[in-house]
From TrEMBL:
<dbReference type="GO" id="GO:0008747">
    <property type="term" value="F:N-acetylneuraminate lyase activity"/>
</dbReference>
<feature type="binding site">
    <location>
        <position position="211"/>
    </location>
    <ligand>
        <name>pyruvate</name>
    </ligand>
</feature>
<feature type="active site" description="Proton donor/acceptor">
    <location>
        <position position="139"/>
    </location>
</feature>
<protein>
    <recommendedName>
        <fullName>N-acetylneuraminate lyase</fullName>
        <ecNumber>4.1.3.3</ecNumber>
    </recommendedName>
</protein>
<keyword id="KW-0963">Cytoplasm</keyword>
<feature type="active site" description="Schiff-base intermediate with substrate">
    <location>
        <position position="169"/>
    </location>
</feature>
<dbReference type="InterPro" id="IPR013785">
    <property type="entry name" value="Aldolase_TIM"/>
</dbReference>
<comment type="pathway">
    <text>Amino-sugar metabolism; N-acetylneuraminate degradation.</text>
</comment>
<keyword id="KW-0704">Schiff base</keyword>
<keyword id="KW-0456">Lyase</keyword>
<comment type="similarity">
    <text>Belongs to the DapA family. NanA subfamily.</text>
</comment>
<dbReference type="GO" id="GO:0005737">
    <property type="term" value="C:cytoplasm"/>
</dbReference>
<dbReference type="Pfam" id="PF00701">
    <property type="entry name" value="DHDPS"/>
</dbReference>
<dbReference type="InterPro" id="IPR002220">
    <property type="entry name" value="DapA-like"/>
</dbReference>
<keyword id="KW-0119">Carbohydrate metabolism</keyword>
<comment type="subunit">
    <text>Homotetramer.</text>
</comment>
Length: 305
């Protein structure tokens, strides 16, 4: 698929749950406006932070549609459709195309695993084929899936097998691997980098599109602006600020449950808890997290300005 390029910050939003653990559809419009007002131009929905693998197919369809409707005119929607079942993923991909998603992405099955790059290409080719008008991105997050492939080799093999392939979301932390993907076929494929604490390093290597936690819109907008001006001192200082925020998250456990609570605290939007098997935070844990964020001066870091 020619001339499809993502240009702008991509949020990886959490899925909001109500007190009963159901998806809270009442908040999506406010949520989408918040992200757009903090410099995000795209959302990567039903992915890792969204607990997409803990949602049913029906819930994922409803959530994808809610994002498309709520973000209309302000946010372009990339729908993650990966599952452990090809037919479920195909159903989600077809639906994403029907509702007008900007793009789809899929991670690998992680129980019965593709054994090599050739097998991965065949799987993704069959998945992407059911949405022939929609750009497709492979999603690599090897430390979570336990599937380790050579992403550059995947892109080379997929060139003639997946006509809608536009690149990959590279969340596997290995910067040389991500950079190598940008060199395949003369830079044909776009790398959406998913390790946001390495954002400035990505910019230096020519990877300007990052999939970031939704608290980071303002900060990453300023990093990119400083970098584009050649002001590396300011860009480094801002990246250090992002690192300090990440360190607070890690001190409290570092999981999606912590990150989701951080977003609720810093945005003022109630995201609810997480689904099992993730552990919900206690009230005391949330209070301690808020105290640490306040002490560090971060309470206004994520809000629209």
């Amino acid at each position: 698929m020619e001339n499809v390029k993502i240009n702008g910050l991509i949020a990886a939003p959490f899925t909001p749950f109500d007190d009963k653990g159901e998806v809270d559809h009442s908040i999506f419009k406010e949520y989408a406006d918040f992200l757009a007002d903090t410099h995000f131009e795209y959302v990567f929905v039903n992915g890792t932070l969204a607990e997409g693998m803990s949602l049913t197919v029906a819930e994922r369809k409803a959530t994808a549609k809610a994002w498309v409707n709520s973000g209309k005119g302000r946010l372009k929607v990339i729908v993650h459709v990966g599952t452990n079942c090809l037919k479920d993923s195909q159903e989600l991909a077809k639906h994403a195309e029907e509702i007008g998603a900007f793009a789809i992405a899929a991670l690998t099955p992680s129980y019965h695993k593709p054994e090599n790059e050739e097998c991965m290409v065949e799987y993704m080719a069959q998945l992407a084929a059911v949405a022939p008008k929609t750009p497709f991105y492979y999603y690599d997050i090897n430390f979570a899936t336990g599937v380790y492939i050579n992403c550059s080799k995947f892109l080379k093999l997929a060139k003639d097998r997946i006509p809608t392939l536009c690149g990959l979301k590279h969340s596997s932390r290995e910067l040389p691997s991500a950079h190598g993907c940008t060199l395949v076929e003369g830079g044909k494929y776009q790398v959406l980098f998913g390790t946001d604490v390495q954002y400035l390093s990505c910019l230096v290597l020519g990877m300007s599109e990052v999939v970031a936690a939704p608290v980071l819109g303002n900060l990453f907008h300023e990093i990119k602006k400083a970098f584009d001006k050649g002001d590396l001192e300011t860009a480094r200082s801002l990246q250090c600020k992002a690192q300090r925020l990440n360190e607070i998250k890690d001190r409290h456990g570092g999981g999606i449950n912590i990150a989701k609570s951080m977003f609720t605290i810093l945005s003022g939007l109630e995201m609810g808890s997480v689904r099992l098997p993730l552990r919900a935070l206690t009230l005391d844990e949330r209070k301690r997290l808020k105290t640490d964020l306040e002490t560090a001066g971060f309470l206004d870091i994520a809000k629209p300005k």
